[in-house]
Amino acid sequence: MDIKALPHRIDAAIRFFLYLLVFWLPYSPAVIESCVGISLILWLIKRSLLKTFKPQTTTLNGPIAFFLFACLVSLWGSFHPEQSTRGFLTKTLEWFIVYFLAVEVFTQKKHITTVLVILSITSLATAFDGIIQYYVTGRDIFMGRIIPREDPIARSGATAAFKHANILGAYLTFVIPLMLAAVFCFSKRYMKFLAGFTVVMSLWLLLITFSRGAWLAVMGGSLLSLWMVQRKIFFAGASVFLIIIFSGFIFLSPQTKSTLRVTTENLSNSLSYRLGLWEDSWKMIQDKPAFGHGLNTFMPLFQEYRRKYLDKFDFGPTYAHNSFIQLTVETGLVGLAGFMWILLRLFKNVIAQITQIRHNNPSKILLTSLIAGVFGFLIQSGVDTNFYSLQPSVLFWLMAGILIAQQRLLLTEQPETKVI
Helix (H, G, I), strand (E, B), or coil: what is residue 385? Predict the structure, then answer.
């Protein structure tokens, strides 16, 4: 065996497991964990042959290192050090393992195209699954997830194979813009049709999730992409969204509004519940503002801070329903600063590159759709638990890695473009 060729073969094996991760992501958290674990082992073998374990140099390395430092410091002051250490090793590190693996092995256009093909297949299957679940069977085909229709408090939207409709919504915030981009990126007509059909089905599925945060996320991502393409189109798109929203409130029947969970009572209850959680979470931040209470400790500690007089709400363990607030509780303002540094650096570099490329070639369109998906995901994270659920968090960092990989490919096409 040619030892020199072995690292390239290992890269191909890592790509295979990342492709497998994309395919199984809606259906099996166990497969996700296995794919990440096997890919990491392969990476370690490869780097032992190369005699270096330094990850790829990217524009995000500095912010990531700072954020990980803040997380480590938070472990020292944690009330549950074992739980915090476990969270650091199995959750936080996993984010960046996935990110650096994607950057390292997706080095050619065909690699990213393969991701789009796999994503189109599995997301179309997810769309059919969710639609059949909602309208026909009441349970999804792959995992048997049942839609709770009897309990008025429980979520009644489609979940497909995911545990929760909001997690499905987070998945769709990436699927929809990427499949739109695939319509332009795929060269063969039947692949363009597949991508376009997936967009239509995914939008339909998004509607029947009744995940209002995901709706806002897709709107926000769409508006960002329109802003980067052309400002006039952005204002037209924003006007259309506003007309749709106001028309819905005026013309939809009370029954339809209730089904969509957009009645005044629905929105008021949801907002009041979240504001209560955030207010109580702020007490936790005030107690340990710098480095927080420790990773993975929000749920058990929150019970000591939450208000107890709202009898209509469950007092079992809960998330903050705002990933940034929960991150601040666990890693402090220093951790939040590191995390925001990662995101701001990502947006600054990518948007600067997109605006410098005049022609809307397929590579630029794909880059725009990726950053739109990232932006939409972050919008939903402001009202939900995206970064604290395995499937959406892994998807986010995988797409962030592919975003940087695509950015590097564009730099080879546009040598005059600089990375800030």
Answer: coil
- Report d(CA 87, CA 282) in Å as an integer: 22
Other Cβ atoms within 10 Å of 135 Cβ, number = 10
Phi-psi region of 357 (alpha: psi -120 to 50; beta: other; left: phi over 0): beta
Name 156's Cβ contacts closer than 8 Å, sequence gap at least 6.
147, 148, 149, 210
0.70 exceeded by pTM: yes
**What's the token pair of residue 202?**
């995914």
Q: What is the pLDDT of residues 105-146, one digit of tens each?
A: 999 999 999 999 999 999 999 999 999 999 999 999 999 998
Which helix (H) or strand (E) segment holds residue 81: the answer is helix 81-87
Express each pLDDT in 261-318 by its tens digit: 888 888 888 888 899 899 999 999 999 999 999 999 999 899 888 876 555 455 666 8
3-state DSSP assignment of residue 130: helix
Closest among 387, 392, 388, 380 to 25, alpha carbons compared: 392
What angle is formed at CA 310 by the lines to CA 305 and CA 314, rounded to 5 degrees? 80
Q: What is the pLDDT of residues 331-376, one digit of tens each?
A: 999 999 999 999 999 999 999 888 888 777 888 889 999 999 999 9
Q: SS3 string of 52-90?
A: CCCCCCCCCHHHHHHHHHHHHHHHHCCCCHHHHHHHHHH
Q: How far apart are CA 409 and CA 362, in angstroms?
A: 12
Return the half-sphere exposure (C-beta side, CA atoms, 13 A cut-off) of residue 21: 27
